[in-house]
Design goal:
single chain; 18% strand; 302 residues; 8-stranded mixed β-sheet; 8 strands; alpha/beta
């Protein structure tokens, strides 16, 4: 009856199609090695049960898609690593569907992960700005932690973001999640919003300055707020291990955003890696599988 109740709860939350699965009893603590790589390879996952548009908060954009490992009968007590994906779109555009190709590539890696592809409220200059989006992350992780028993999650979390989503992933991990985020991967992410190459050059097709939308004011009006929303200013020796990937032909987010953060992380001896894809633009066209392979290689070293 308990299993059925949990199953029906997910069905009612999703509101869309899902594939059938059965949740086992609450997890038992694993005795496997506590390294992140050890947990990632504690089981080989070849199939996922999918739930769309689950709610983690009350706001319309506080939703996520869940990809839950479908275990063999003798592995249903296995705990998995949480992999949380954050979409790009200049903080004010797009949604989680942007990362669907990356989800599919991650699913093919056979890793012992439960995947959360999340939305956040979009910046609108007036009401939703950087602090409110960070509140979305806190709300998501509170919801996530409440599901730890029923979803058989261990305490390992990887935060992976693309472009503006990479900036948000780094910001949350460095500012708030350094004690419970085990690794962060950021693809073509702005790391210093006070850099004119960022706050003077990121516009949408309507001519809106998207950094101004995120902060709520222009850099000239609020330079301190731009610096406070820059993950490069929060590096400490406790910062989570970080992978930074940039494109050599990216004319939107210059590779120096990653290089400078890499240097700062290295100076305080935080495990990190900077990767430059020489021929890649900001869109990373045709690079999906390469980016996921690089991500997995980095995580395997932790």
């Amino acid at each position: 009856m308990k299993q059925l109740s949990i199953y029906l709860l997910f069905l009612s939350l999703s509101g869309l199609s899902c594939q059938s699965f059965e949740l086992a009893e609450p997890f038992k603590f694993s005795s496997k090695a506590e390294t992140l790589a050890g947990h990632l390879h504690a089981d080989t996952v070849s199939h996922y049960s999918t739930f769309y548009n689950l709610k983690y908060g009350k706001e319309p954009n506080q939703v996520y898609d869940l990809y839950l490992p479908a275990r063999q009968d003798n592995r249903k007590d296995m705990q998995s690593v949480s992999l949380i994906l954050v979409h790009g779109g200049g903080w004010a555009l797009l949604d989680k569907s942007f990362l669907n190709p990356y989800v599919e590539s991650f699913k093919k890696q056979g890793l012992n992960v439960t995947i959360f592809n999340i939305n956040h409220r979009l910046a609108d200059r007036n009401e939703i700005n950087f602090p409110e989006i960070m509140d979305d992350f806190r709300t998501f992780f509170a919801h996530h932690d409440s599901l730890r028993d029923s979803l058989h999650l261990n305490n390992k979390k990887v935060l992976w973001g693309y472009s503006s989503g990479g900036h948000l992933a780094l910001s949350y991990a460095y500012m708030y999640g350094y004690k419970n985020i085990d690794a962060t991967v950021a693809i073509v992410a702005p790391t210093d919003l006070s850099d004119p190459k960022i706050h003077e050059h990121i516009y949408d097709d309507k001519g809106r300055n998207l950094c101004t939308y995120l902060i709520g004011q222009s850099f000239e009006e609020a330079p301190h707020e731009f610096r406070m929303a820059s993950p490069i200013n929060y590096v400490t020796k406790d910062t989570p291990p970080t992978l930074l990937i940039y494109g050599g032909s990216d004319f939107l987010v210059d590779q120096s955003q990653g290089q400078r953060l890499h240097e700062k992380l290295t100076k305080v001896k935080v495990h990190n890696h900077f990767e430059l894809v020489p021929d890649a633009t900001h869109d990373m066209d045709g690079k999906t599988h390469e980016l996921i392979a690089q991500s997995v290689e980095f995580l395997n070293g932790l």
